[in-house]
Amino acid sequence: MIHDLTRPITSGMPVYPGDPPVQITPLPSPPWQISALHLGSHSGTHLDAPRHRFADGAGIDEISPERLIRPGMVIDACGYPANTPIGPEALAGVALQAGMAVVIRTGWEVYWGTDDYMRHPYLSAALAQILAGYGVAIVGIDAFSVDSTVDGNDAAHVALLGNNILIAENLCNLATLACGTQYTFAFLPLLIRQADGAPARVVAWREN
């Protein structure tokens, strides 16, 4: 079974505060169906490249396909209050390995489309540094950001992107995956030259 962890791109969908609004406009071109797309590079489910935070960091087009398909697991971080940091305790009993994908499930995806979605829990600086220390390949979360959207801080982005660890945000359907179970994840962004990030199709499955 393939689990789709991707938000559909739709006109007027929620975006991070200050990001461009998403607009899909059908264009008259009978008999063909063609649409104009207006969106930011971090619209919907997307992947952050190091260039998102560091001007000299790698862009989306510099990331090899091999890096985008990873073994990994979902970490249960449900139950944290709004706009609070998720500490290293979330990793208790979890065997991290270099090169894996770590997906943080806060449960906040249920607030998608409401003001409460902006007040999601986020990675503490300590947790981000631990993940970086293990050399994981990708960190994902079911929220606008791995940092606080309300406070606008960037400690987790700095710790992860500064160590060439990719970030996937606005994941969904994480409740369909068993926490602590190994899956194969595919994070497939649009191939945009020199981009700081890009919308991505993210899926997961268990190997037989």
Structure notes:
It contains three helices and twelve strands, in the order E-E-E-E-H-E-E-E-E-H-E-H-E-E-E. The mean pLDDT is 97. Helix 2 (125-134) packs parallel to helix 3 (155-161). With 208 residues, it is mainly β. The N and C termini lie close together (10 Å).
Keywords:
single chain; 208 residues; mainly beta; seven-stranded mixed β-barrel; two-stranded antiparallel sheet; 3 helices; 10% helix
pLDDT averaged over residues: 97
H/E order of the elements? EEEEHEEEEHEHEEE
Strand order of the largest sheet: 4-10-9-7-5-11-12
> Taking Cα atoms only, what radius of gyration do you get, to the nearest Å?
17 Å
Shape: globular
Strand content: 25-35%
> In terms of per-residue confidence, which ranges show pLDDT below 50 for 5 or more consecutive residues?
none
- The proportion of residues forming helix, as a percent range, comes to 10-25%
How many alpha or pi helices? 3
Secondary structural class: mainly beta
- C-alpha end-to-end distance: 10 Å
Number of strands: 12
Major sheet description: 7 strands, mixed, barrel
Please render the helix and strand layout as text.
Layout: E1 3-4, E2 23-29, E3 32-38, E4 46-48, H1 65-68, E5 69-76, E6 85-86, E7 101-105, E8 122-123, H2 125-134, E9 138-141, H3 155-161, E10 166-169, E11 183-189, E12 197-205
Parallel strand pairs: 5-7, 6-8, 7-9, 9-10
Antiparallel strand pairs: 1-12, 2-3, 4-10, 4-12, 5-11, 11-12
Short summary of the structure?
The chain has helices at 65-68, 125-134, 155-161; strands at 3-4, 23-29, 32-38, 46-48, 69-76, 85-86, 101-105, 122-123, 138-141, 166-169, 183-189, 197-205. It has 208 residues and is mainly beta.
